[in-house]
Amino acid sequence: MQRIGVFVCWCGSNIAGTVDVHTVAEALKSEPGVVFSTDYQYMCSQAGQDIIKNAIKEHNLTGIVVCSCSPRMHEATFRKTAAAAGINPYMVEIANIREQCSWVHKDMQTGTEKAIILGKAAVAKVNLNTPLTPGESPVTKRALVIGGGIAGIQTALDIADAGFPVDIVETKPTIGGKMAQLDKTFPTLDCAACILTPKMVDVAQNENIRIFSYSEVQEIKGFVGNFDVTIKKRARFVKEEICTGCGACVEKCPMKKIPNEFNLGMDNRHAIYIPFAQAVPKVATIDPNACNMLKKGKCGICSKVCSAGAIDYTQKDEFISEKYGAIVVATGFNPISMEKFDEYAYSQSKDVITSLEFERLTNAAGPTAGKLLRPSDLKHPHTIVFVQCVGSRCAACAEKGKEYCSKICCMYTAKHAMLVRDKYPDTEVYVFYIDVRTPGKNFDEFYRRAVEEYGVKYVKGMVGKVTPEGDKLKVQASDLIANKQLHIDADLVVLAAAIEPDKSARPLATMLTASMDTNDFFTEAHPKLRPVESPTAGVFLSGACQGPKDIPETVSQASAAASKVIGLLVKDKLTGNPCVASPNELMCNGCSTCERVCPYGAITYEDKEFMMPDRSKAIRRVAQVNPAVCQGCGACTVACMSGAMDLRGFMGSQIIAEVDAICK
Amino acid sequence: MQVNEYKPLIVAFCCNWCSYAGADLAGNNRLAYPADVKIIRVPCSCRVNPMFILRAFQRGADGVIICGCHPGDCHYTSGNYYTRRRMALLFSMLDYLGIERERTRLEWVSAAEGAKFAATMNDFVEKVTALGENKRLEDLRCKR
Amino acid sequence: MQKITRDVLVNKAVSLLEAGEVKAVLGWGKGEFSYDVTPTVFESADELRENFVWNDFCGANFSKYLVSKTRKIQGKILVFLKPCDTYSFNQLLTEHRFDREKVYAVGVPCEGMADIAKVKALAGDGISAIDFTDAGLVVTTLYDDEPKTITYADALAERCVNCKSKKHVAYDELLGESGEVLESARFDEVEKIEAMTADERFAFWQGELSRCIRCNACRDVCPACTCEKCVFDNPNSGAENKAPATSFEEQMFHIIRAFHVAGRCTDCGECSRVCPQNIPLHLLNRKFIRDIDNFYGEYQAGAEVGSRAPLVDYNLDDLEASDVFDRRDTE
Q1: How confident is the model over A489-533, as pLDDT tens digits?
Q2: Domain coordinates of chain A in residue numbers?
Q3: Closest by alpha carbon to C169, among C3, C300, C22, C24?
Q4: Do B105 and C312 touch (CB under 8 A)?
Q5: Are C76 and C102 within 8 A, CB to CB?
Q6: Contact between C24 and C78 (Cβ < 8 Å)
Q7: Do A235-315 and A581-648 have matching folds?
Q8: pLDDT value of position C247
Q9: What's the pLDDT band for A613 if we cut at 50, 70, 90?
Q10: Is the dihedral of CA A492, A498, A502, A506 positive or negative?
Q11: Which of A532, A513, A625 is nearest to A577 (CA)?
């Protein structure tokens, strides 16, 4: 049986003006478990807290009820008071008789009656309270960044600068991501390589950073502070630590008709290759699907020409296990497939390209060495049509496009159009758009310059059809402002393809038990207030895996995620919230219902042996809650049919006791 | 003073992060609502078990209202979405059994909506008062 | 009359049992009366030949028994499943309630089962024998000299009149043929009640539920009610409370039970079959099923293993609780 003390606060006249505090204190004296009850002018004052402390000692109290202002004001205060007097801080309940009683009711009688009822409910709850202790778990001071694009690079650099080791896992043979493929960046037009490659070098040279390129995450176990991750390092058939990246092997490789992924298939690479000159790590990789030595056991030229002796045809996939305290997801995006967009003749004509392909065409390191030549006949195009929102903002075409705005296309199209007009003033450039969206620092000015200074022809309206005819592309479009149909004979058509999360994101989310939206973008813990954290504790989001983003936004989010990771890794121990769910294993059905509603992935299952009612033994599947991950929402407690799952601090029996006290 | 004036008993389950704070804000702004409303604090509206609601009715409550964060604003990201489904189905079932539908309500009240909290409670109390005492849930099994 | 014969079932069970592929057979066994078929665990060929029953009173759904039997019996259990039973079977698998590896499921076709209450209403009490002929059930009673013939259609249980599926959604082996998912009028009764005024609805349910004797048969037979410990038996749940008629448990039992199985109930109809008071409990479950279909899109529990039940799922644009009524009022 509890020994409960009740402390009714006057809050000056704030409470005492509408509630007869003496009557409340008197009335609560006769409640079950109450052995002491008093009132005082300001319970939160030092003197008031001393009254509580003294009463706890003098009357051997096991729990206390403070009838005062909202628990949102002083629950923490009174918990500390209780702890100082030697009782568990979670043995304190607050009856909110100020904000929810004296301040909203006018007459003394109703106010007093209600205050007594609220006090009774709190007493009824305290009677069922149990001491709670927050759990502690250690923190592994190492972070994992999944994805080596600009988002992952920035996050890794920031974490490493704070002194923590970081591993980057990148599926491609090099880090750099999409930004490495870009030519210039809006709105400043500095070259992407000039600002990105120094950062890539920083990553390579940073003592705290390890790069696992050509690798993927195989398995993730554990929870915040204590993730166990298995990384699969795919065999690249080149000893990474020996290869100098001299490129002699590439030059001599006889298999040279392999579509080059880095240039989006617009030119060819060899079976052994280095994706681009500034690749990090700068080591060669053998494509096992193209190499004759690996496929047929014939050739071996690269091995012969490699003076360092780095080629190893027998290399196997390697599995690395490592512990991490935090994981950052930076898996980025891809343009969606254009195959279903027949109206733009993407599959029929080489001269219909995506914007990313256009980036490669204008890039000095690209397939045309930066000369704007159209892919089919390598002639200079004189009329270029840019089509905006291909697959974006496309609620009606959900089976091939996306409902959302891809955000970056308006700006990069303005950039493309401007660059074309700048380098080749003889070229006519049309941009077809639904809306031009330019929120961002210096963005609208940039777009205005494209229109006003560079003479890009912006047409509000969509392109209906592109038909290849001879060496021209017949573009049929509508001009909604002039309200007329347009027919343009174009040489090149550039499609601003919608972007979507990388395909690796979905299986990764499953491994992380991190939630995703219907478009496979990772969900943030709170859309406004916790934008770089996943609801799963210890998992952070960086870049376009969370939603479409341009480079400046990506970098800010990357640094924000890093700061959150650093905030986690500086801690030696994580102290949890003790008000978490806990299952009664004897009643648990192991049905997985609770697991399905848990937004944090805090629930797992274990097979355990139990003594059954007839004394036989049986193995049963039962739920386990990880208190370091559970946030205490209680969704599982209601989903649980048997009532095996309960929430500490808000137990079913406690809430029912409150209901009963109120309804008595 | 009227002696026999009917006073309903209303139980309000409020989520700690939004609606409970909204109720506090109503207090800060001295926005009055009837004292018949008694608030029980829960961490999230999804902690409200239909059993609590039925228990309240059985013990003599005349109306039960559940308040949570607006959809999309849940402190725990998804709790209120589960609440919405659970309560939609429960309320529909109670209606099917012939229980007056005005006795149960689910409202979204944010921490900034003190005025909405007070207005909601005033409206709810008014509707339940008009219905009078809750007999049906107590009587469902006992034919008179 | 069932198209597949008892012999086919018995032979299958005997051969698997004798080959040692299964250790036990879960099937219908002889009860006190010919219509009184009892779920039985057979462990020998002789028992099977002697006591196995297959007729129009084999309504019992064995899925639930697998939860306890797979724990007790070492080795595989053969279980006979009618099409509607297979949905419960899948639902239990979705909830990890038994080990699939320990079960050998044999699907049997079903022509619909007879309702003994209907038979008694037509033939009278004191049934001493029932023969299953092509013309129908030939019922002999203690009080009539001449046996009465009742057509199968007249004797068909309500849940079979409104059969939702003749398709087996789970089995290791099928005897006979599997059918299709059917269009049924199973929600007509629910709609009729919905169309009543609130007062009429209350009177209807008061009339039905006031007959409840809290025997717990509906819960005990329900394949969705497999909790290790039921909240109604748990003193700490706040729902447990035996006896007095004014207590929470007595009044709220059926609402809470229906809510607990909402989204998980496959509409097998066992609750109504076993109710000794003939309370149409399936009308509570069907109300939830219909609401779920209407509010969140059609969902059949148990149609596939691993599907996400509607109550543990959500859409951002789900309808609001208040719209439930607006929607109905404007219909």
Answers
A1: 999 999 999 999 999 999 999 888 788 888 999 988 887 888 999
A2: 4-128, 134-234+317-332+502-575, 235-315, 335-499, 581-648
A3: C300
A4: no
A5: yes
A6: yes
A7: yes
A8: 43
A9: confident
A10: negative
A11: A625
In percent, the amount of chain C with pLDDT more than 70 equals 94
Q: Report the C-alpha gap between A183 and A185 in whole angstroms.
A: 7
C239 pLDDT tier (thresholds 50, 70, 90): low
Q: Give the architecture (CATH level 2) of B10-139.
A: 3-Layer(aba) Sandwich (3.40)
CATH number of A4-128: 3.40.50
Kindly give, in sequence order, each residue whose CB lies less than 8 Å from that of residue C222, ignoring residues fewer than 6 positions away. C64, C257, C261, C265, C270, C271
All residues of chain C having their beta carbon less than 8 Å from the beta carbon of residue B90 are: 259
**C65, pLDDT greater than 90:** yes
Measure A546 CA to nearest chain B CA, in Å: 15
Which pLDDT belongs to residue B140?
58
**pLDDT of C249 above 50:** no
Cβ contact C257:C225 at 8 Å: yes
Rounded to a whole number, what is the distance in Å from the CA of B96 to chain A's nearest CA? 22
Q: Which two tokens stand for residue A34?
A: 């109450």
**Chain A partners within 8 Å of B59 (Cβ):** 659-660, 663-664
pLDDT per position as a tens digit, C24-51: 999 999 988 878 899 999 999 999 999 9
Domain boundaries, chain C: 1-115+156-184, 122-151, 185-331
- Please give the distance of CA C306 from its chain centroid, rounded to a whole number: 21
A311-364 pLDDT per residue, tens: 999 999 999 999 999 999 999 999 999 998 999 999 999 999 999 999 999 999
The token pair that represents C25 in the structure block: 């057979």
Q: Which CATH class is domain A335-499?
A: alpha beta
pLDDT at A515: 80
Q: How far is CA C90 from CA A519, C226, C284, in A?
A: 29, 14, 22
CATH class, A134-234+317-332+502-575 region: alpha beta
Query: Is pLDDT above 50 for C244?
Result: no
Tell me the C-alpha distance between A560 and A440, whole Å.
19
| Complete DSSP assignment for C128-151 | EEEEEETTEEEEEESS-SS-EEE-
C129 φ/ψ sector (left φ>0, alpha ψ -120 to 50, else beta): beta
- How confident is the model over A276-316, as pLDDT tens digits? 999 999 999 999 999 999 999 999 999 999 999 999 999 99
A320 touching C, CB under 8 A?
Answer: no
C309 phi, psi to nearest 5 deg: -65, 145
In CATH, A581-648 is 3.30.70.3270: yes
Strands A484-490 and A457-460: unpaired
> What CATH class is the domain A235-315?
alpha beta
A118 CB within 8 Å of a chain B CB = yes
Count CB atoms within 10 A of the CB of residue A194.
Answer: 10
Token output for A200? 């890539």
From the candidates B33, B37, B78, which should be mutated to test the interface with A, based on the most A CB atoms within 10 A? B78
Contact between residue C40 and residue C28 where contact means Cβ atoms under 8 Å apart:
yes
CB contact under 8 A, C287 and B96: yes
Q: Kindly tell me the burial class for residue B40, based on how many C-beta atoms sit within 10 Å of its own C-beta (0-12, 13-18, 19 or more).
A: buried
User: Is pLDDT above 90 for A7?
Assistant: yes
Tokens found for residue C197: 């005024």
- Can you tell me the ipTM of this complex? 0.95
> What end-to-end distance do the CA atoms of chain B give, in Å?
35
Are the beta carbons of A359 and A596 closer than 8 angstroms?
no
Looking at chain A, the whole-number percentage of residues with pLDDT higher than 70 is 100
Residue A527, pLDDT score: 78
Closest-CA residue of B relative to C315 is B81
